[in-house]
Design goal:
The complex is a heterodimer of chains A (295) and B (264).
Chain A lengths: L3 H4 L7 E7 L11 H7 L6 E6 L7 H8 L4 E5 L12 H14 L4 E4 L2 E3 L8 E4 L8 H15 L3 E4 L12 H12 L3 E4 H10 L16 E7 L2 E5 L2 E5 L8 H13 L5 E5 L5 H15 L10
Parallel strand pairs in A: 1-2, 1-12, 2-3, 3-4, 4-7, 8-9, 9-12
Antiparallel strand pairs in A: 5-6, 10-11
Helix pairs in contact in A: 5-6, 7-8
Chain B lengths: L11 H13 L1 H8 L9 H8 L12 H12 L1 H7 L1 H6 L4 H8 L4 H10 L4 H15 L10 E3 L3 E6 L3 H12 L3 H6 L15 E7 L5 E6 L1 H10 L5 H10 L7 H10 L3 E3 L2
Antiparallel strand pairs in B: 1-5, 2-3, 3-4
The chains are: A alpha/beta (295), B mainly alpha (264).
Chain lengths: 295, 264
């Protein structure tokens, strides 16, 4: 197989997109991706669909897929470093969802999505343990999922209030991308959380990062909270994007030579509330990121 | 003899599993931060966890409530019998930690490993229902006969089914709301005397059918379990009253009826 840096040339340029997950649009006033595309085609050039296979796709995602519009598949239910998670039942369901969505690639947080077995009530999301020994098992899972689906699998840096391990998040994900020979999804809001938690500058670790592997970026709002003197950011996908998240996105766009997609994660907000976020994201991304061809 | 902690290979997954337990249980977190030995963690694993700011473990007020919701959904009547405080303490129990460290299923760990006899037959019934819902493949040897996935049998005190059904009625259409208002465990306790066999079957749509079973059928399905050699199951059928010449046909019938499965 050619190396990822050769394979990346075949990945489509999806442009600026919006995310959804099962039931996200059902809440009153929540964003309807199809309506966003009608009213602002440039802001919904593709749909990133968050998938738990036990739930499947909701009406919004099914309708989008039925029109043959571009998608990506964001997994929400696989611990990549846990071989027992790759059971045949789950894999068959993943393949079925892929057949329906025809996604450009798979992506998702490379962290602990559930404790114990994949069961109701077990869901959570913890970042990986930032130590060298955690890289190889996760890389093996990425390679396995790529072989099984025939799709590129882009690990994403997860959010967290506590990060365990000595490595910098970017150092860990660079090692992971190298070991799995894959691209990356950099979540700018999650990275901002990490930098804050470690007391680092928003752009700390940027100099040695493998920017040519970054294929997709996420932008999302976060809520600043404080308890007993501990400040942290909740990843609420709201309409308030932290200044350092914007700064990270701007710096990342400048450096990511193989960038194909930028997602504004705001699925539970009204279109009118999120348009300014898309406008700013579009201006950061520039025309170079626009989708080459959308049906 | 287990490997001494300082010699054990570093395992990042074990660190995450312990972190999960710390997130759910402040007392467990205190043990990690404390000095007493913890057999499940190596020295380096524990050192990494001790660097976590304890305040960062308490940033999600609803974590335990969300998990408890999943338990109450499957064990509503048991929860009313034992009280919500006892259900909540599950998350601070060795049973919960075994579930986390050994890739268990929380509902099954709750029923099998924590609740045990605390809710009498009602607990046993709801635990059996939790097993039936999961329709797990049987693990017996090839060529054995096993209870079909989704079929469970349980022997409980007499009148348990009627008591359970009244309990469900009492909790109404929204059992979680009713449980949330429950300040103390129910005063009425489930039956303790006599015995009845209850059969639980999973329908195609995932719903469960509950009903009584004869002692002979109950004993036979219990013996089948995860899988037993057909000859042994025929012998058990005869012990339970089947005519020797009919035993093989009886088992064939149970396979046809979907109660037993041939593990081929």
């Amino acid at each position: 197989m050619p190396s990822f840096l050769d394979r990346v040339a075949a990945l489509p340029r999806l442009g600026l997109g919006v995310s959804t997950e099962y039931g996200a649009g059902a809440r009153d006033g929540a964003l309807d991706p199809a309506q966003l595309r009608r009213e602002h085609p440039g802001f919904a050039q593709f749909l990133e669909v968050g998938v738990e296979v036990s739930k499947g796709l909701d009406d919004d995602a099914e309708a989008w897929a039925a029109r043959g519009l571009p998608t990506t598949y964001h997994f929400l239910d696989i611990n990549l470093d846990e071989p027992a998670d790759f059971d045949e039942t789950w894999l068959a369901q993943v393949r079925a969802v892929c057949a329906q969505l025809d996604p450009a690639w798979m992506c998702g947080d490379a962290g602990l999505w559930h404790f114990g077995a994949r069961e109701r009530g077990h869901m959570l999301l913890l970042p990986p343990v930032l130590e060298r020994e955690a890289v190889a098992p996760m890389a093996a899972g990425i390679a396995r999922l790529r072989e099984t689906t025939g799709l590129e699998v882009l690990p994403e840096n997860p959010p967290g209030a506590a990060f365990v391990g000595a490595m910098h998040l970017l150092e860990f994900f660079a090692a992971l991308a190298d070991a799995a020979d894959t691209g990356l999804l950099l979540d700018c809001a999650h990275l901002a959380m990490f930098q804050r938690a470690r007391g680092l500058d928003p752009l700390a670790g940027f100099d040695d990062f493998c920017w040519d592997r970054v294929v997709e970026l996420h932008l999302a709002g976060g809520r600043e909270l404080e308890r007993e003197g501990l400040a942290w950011v909740e990843d609420d996908h709201g309409v308030e994007i932290l200044p350092e998240t914007w700064a990270i996105a701007e710096a990342a766009i400048d450096r990511a030579s193989n960038l194909r997609a930028l997602v504004v994660e705001c699925e539970r907000n009204a279109i009118a509330e999120v348009v300014p976020l898309f406008e700013r994201a579009a201006s950061l991304a520039g025309a170079e990121l626009d989708a080459v061809a959308s049906p | 003899m287990s490997t001494p902690n300082h010699e054990r290979a570093f395992d990042p997954r074990r660190v995450q599993q312990a972190l999960v337990c710390m997130l759910f249980d402040p007392k467990y977190a205190a043990r990690v931060y404390g000095e007493a030995e913890l057999a499940e963690l190596g020295v380096r694993e524990r050192a990494l966890l001790r660097e976590v700011d304890p305040r960062a473990l308490a940033t999600d007020d609803m974590r335990r409530a969300r998990a408890m919701h999943a338990i109450l959904d499957e064990f509503p009547v048991s929860a009313a019998v034992v009280g919500l405080d006892l259900v909540d303490r599950f998350f601070a129990s060795p049973a919960f930690r075994r579930c986390v460290f050994e890739r268990g299923a929380m509902a099954l760990a709750f029923g099998d490993d924590y609740l045990r006899d605390r809710a009498k037959g009602v607990g046993a019934l709801e635990t059996a229902m939790a097993h039936a819902r999961r329709r797990r493949p049987r693990t017996g040897p090839p060529a054995s006969l096993a209870r079909a996935p989704g079929v469970e049998i349980v022997r409980v005190p007499d009148q348990t089914l009627a008591w359970y059904q009244r309990g469900r009625q009492r909790l109404g259409d929204e059992p979680l709301r009713a449980l949330a208002k429950l300040r103390k465990p129910w005063k009425q306790k489930p039956p303790r005397r006599g015995a009845q066999w209850l059969l639980i079957e999973t329908d195609g749509d995932g719903s469960l059918a509950l009903g009584g079973a004869s002692a002979a059928l109950g004993g036979l399905l219990a013996a089948a379990g995860q899988g037993i050699a057909p000859a042994l199951l025929r012998a058990r059928a005869i012990e339970l009253g089947a005519a020797p010449e009919d035993a093989a046909e009886l088992l064939d019938d149970l396979v046809r009826d979907g109660l037993l499965v041939d593990l081929g």
